[in-house]
């Protein structure tokens, strides 16, 4: 018997043959239109024509690899056996021995002539794992990038570093064009998902011998889109603001980790996060930062045998949180957790689904803080919370929220395993807009006046 709930908004993202299948992408409301390249083997990197050559810098021995600034040139290289000619500096993603073979073949080409009859330039740039891109640089992939750096021969500095496969700073932009950035692990993926060692070195050693801790790192409002990221401790890592959109994040320990500071703002949109130990984990502790989640599905995140708090679709710790037209369902723990201390404003807009999670649909908690959580939970749309294993909406004893449903909105919590709405503290509820079946309150804790749940058909 299935309750007569609203039909889910369509939203799917599949990968096939190393790139997203455009016909299968149905983000809501519009479909994603991936940019088309004239040459499928082309990777372009755009930068200033007057860039000075960057000095190679190191952070310990696990340095991000800077590449020389280049003006636009014509460069012929070989991408997995196919010659590539492009009007801008080119790069290819290559791994291990192939990287060496690539360089030998490219070198031999330099002594010949291009199709235009002109000698090839003496340098063909390559995109490799560990690079750092700064303000003004725009990078587009045309094939998957696999990171197989040898952990066994890595320096001590690299082994204890939370290093990144690709780093974007300032207003740098990465368009993966539907291709993936992946790391080659020596162990099964569950070793990564269940990893909980005392040090970074032990994590990297015992959880897959992974050279890179993070996949794509964004800082200073950098942007990444159309990416598939897998097999890192943090798939995406955002610090000091950034934007992620039109991406697929899977089989990482944490899919997307946001660690913003004062005045920072991060936006995640039109993105699917699935099969990670933890879906999206946001930690913003300042009084003036913002997190905006729009058209995001964080489903089927599997939790960890060794990290109790993992298994949530959204774990949000911040001062100003907006979630719109999104879903967190079928997760090993909760659909959405609002965490933190002090005052928090949470706005749920459009259509939200929180269903079939093993614990609760929407819960407050203070895992990452020691103090009470105060603030507002505003529903400006339709929030559907149903068929979760424990509770639908649960407000813990140290939570002091004003829960308001705006005119025309609704919060529906029905058919959950224990109680549809539970209030253990002093949170309060507005007069209208609630639908629920069963409720439970602590001593003196108010409960909403609910309309009855719809009958099963």
Care to describe what's here?
This protein has 457 residues and is mainly beta. The protein contains 4 helices and 34 strands.
What layout of secondary structure does this protein have?
Blueprint (H helix, E strand, L loop, with lengths): L14 E2 L2 E2 L23 E3 L28 E5 L2 E5 L9 H15 L20 E3 L4 E3 L4 E3 L8 H4 L4 E6 L3 E3 L4 E4 L5 H5 L6 H7 L7 E6 L2 E4 L2 E3 L3 E6 L2 E4 L2 E3 L3 E5 L6 E10 L3 E6 L6 E10 L14 E4 L2 E5 L11 E4 L2 E14 L6 E3 L8 E14 L6 E3 L3 E7 L4 E5 L6 E3 L4 E2 L4 E3 L2 E3 L16
Parallel strand pairs: 6-9, 7-10, 8-11, 9-12, 10-13, 11-14, 12-15, 13-16, 14-17, 15-18, 16-19, 17-19, 18-20, 19-21, 20-22, 21-23, 22-24, 23-25, 24-26, 25-27, 26-28, 27-29, 27-30, 28-31, 29-32, 30-33, 31-34
Antiparallel strand pairs: 1-2, 3-7, 4-5
Radius of gyration: 24 Å
The largest pleated sheet is described as: 18 strands, mixed
The chain-level mean pLDDT equals: 75
Helix content: under 10%
Q: What's the N-to-C terminus distance? A: 6 Å
Q: Report the sheet-strand fraction.
A: 35-45%
**Annotation, overall tally of beta strands:** 34
Principal-axes geometry comes out as elongated
Poorly predicted residue ranges: 1-124
Q: What is the count of DSSP helices, taking H or I runs of 4+ residues?
A: 4
Secondary structural class: mainly beta
* Oligomeric category: single chain
Features:
18-stranded mixed sheet, 457 residues, 34 strands, 4 helices
